[in-house]
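Notebook B, p. 112. Complex prediction, attempt 2.
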Amino acid sequence: MFKLHYRLERRAIGMTLAIICAASVGGFVEIAPLFTIDQTVEAAPDMRVYTPLELAGRNIYMREGCYACHSQMIRTLRDEVERYGHYSLAVESKYDHPMLWGSKRTGPDIARLGGKYSDEWHVRHLLNPREVVRVSIMPSYAWLMDNDLRIDDLSGQLAAQHAVGVPYTPDMIRHAADDAYGQANPDSNRVAGVRARYDDNTNIRAFDGIADRLTEMDALVAYLQILGRLTDASNLDPVGKDLE
Amino acid sequence: MITNLTASERRGALLILVVMAIVGLFFAAAGRGDPIAVHGALIMAVALAFAFPVMGHLYDPEPSADRLDTYYDDPSKVGIILTFAWAAFAMFVGDWLAWMMVEPTWTTGSAWSSFGRLRPVHTTGVIFGFGGNGLIATSFYVMQRTCRVRLPDQLSPWFVLLGFNLFCLLAVTGYMLGITQSKEYAEPEWYADLWLVIVWIVYFVLYLRTLARREEPHIYVANWYYMAFILVVAMLHIVNNLAVPVSFLSAKSHSLFSGVQDALTEWWYGHNAVAFFLTAGFLGMMYYYLPIRAGRPIFSYRMSIISFWGITFMYMWVGSHHLHHTALPQWVQTLGMSFSLVLLVPSWASAANALLTLNGAWHRVRDDATLRFMMIAAVFYGLTTFEGSFMAIRSVNALSHYTDWTVGHVHAGALGWVAMITFGALYASIPWLWKKERMYSSFLVELHFWLALSGTVIYVFALWNAGIVQGLMWRTYTENGNLAYTFVDSVVAMTPYYIARAIGGLLFLTGALAGCLNLYLTVRFAAPATEAFSLMPLRDPVSDAVIQAAE
């Protein structure tokens, strides 16, 4: 065996090919089946897509690096389920390109944050976390309220999501900017379009408290309020069967 | 340095720079309204800043043919300076972030300096800026010495080194502007990723061309590791970054994979960035510099074969240990855990091979801080790989995951192994490259060593404690069966550990700054080497004996 290697290490191309072969096996065996085995992701017919406003909020969540301190993956452990709710299912991040499961909890898990606090709480918390949680070490995100939300590229964002497999319809893609505006302005005439194109339970309100302005705060709060609420699959799946 | 290029190399450089400037101008003009325009302007500015000096020397005479008798070390010198510069910058950002976790208001209040945006600036700055430049600079150095041949041309090494630094620059400025795809350790957006692919292909082709010209029948073991580093990082980088851009004039892209498949792809990438960027590359460094500096050949040639192929094959399986108890199917978690445990064998074989090489040279370890850097690096490599295998066990991971223990573990490897071996290799290379007798101040090397070691130990101990306290507080129940602590309780409990960590980081940063100062003093003021080893180093009897293939 060492004789063989003694010959191999005289050949640069031989070493190159051997390295590629040795390093490819693990990835193939572990990753490829995840695309082909049906049980990997549970079926959830009620699973809905993010609205354009929520998707814009998700982009802001990524831009600000929130995932560095907050996970979105409740593990199958008793204390996690009691603290955060039902453990996360694979289907719940099916439309997350990329996933935001995170790897560190400097702050708590927020996989099921949606609906837990009021919009006003979120706005005040994002502006100055220590106003609502005295000992918090979260940074403040004051600029979210100052920045108008960019909506001219939302159709492109939805189209790119469609290209990677999220079932947005051409109608949704075309009206993305209108729908983002309508979702955060309950008195506007664009609300009907949001209701027609998206789920009946879609949150339609002035998330940042200001109805006539569409800010980045609107988008981020809309996203935080939908976390864990894209599907009811977790409610149908009894908790506690295999917790450690 | 430009006059050392041949006339055709200068024309080639100018052509590349002009094309880059035009591409930059196109993005800057057509991408208005999108952050990509800022990067277009940045690319144009960088390309022009290099194009003008090249133009000034375009019609200079050809360099003398004598140059072909020596190694081509200019890119290594610049690479070493860049390594130190990135170390100072990225470690400063890291320590700033550490203090922000103690007192969150210690920031400018502007978006660019918020924790979430600066955190990838730190990780990219240390991994790619500091580590990557160290690897590129030393790999050019090592491949020439172990092949006993000069680099095949003088343009492609510059393209690799400066192109890679442009990638790093686009990455860190992008995060501060809000350009990120949010995949941990792979945050740069699609256009920066594509640029890195081009740079990386040129890098590997350069490696193969150098190997093809070698005067030595065997490829020395350090080169196996550098090759694995370049090749596998290319595989990982391409697959993990597959994405669809919103448009060709938008900085934003959407990842091809989603949810559970994306999670495993990300950690297949993430853990193997540790394996092939932060381990294989630096093992290449160790396999050259440690025996040379100790003046003793590697302890066992067979052990290096076993550990090389063990690492290359097995590391690729273990990424799923980052996803224990998650929505990832359990069979993948178990497979990842099993391979993580077996991986300890080749890892410890490498560490043992390094330490046993020092047998007979321990007096040098005592007297020579440069060699001591390398020795401590091997010790931390052994400790960290043991800790990593341990943390990959499902039940241990249930406690450690999501806590600061993980951060402590990463830094045991990053500070104790990666940075220590790099500083050791750099302190060894600098006098050789600049033809000096020795580093200007051996006191500063000694000081750097002790600051680095004490900083690492304080950092790692602080976060072991932090992580275990966190993990236990999250899972503690009262007698009535309720959770004993709120999450906020665990945040408050972290304060003393976070202060200790920030102090440890500050010590480490101070050491790196002492290194920067020493580099400057050595280049400017150190006494030149007396021997005429600068003239014809293509054969060097001392290193010949040390790096010969065994058998």
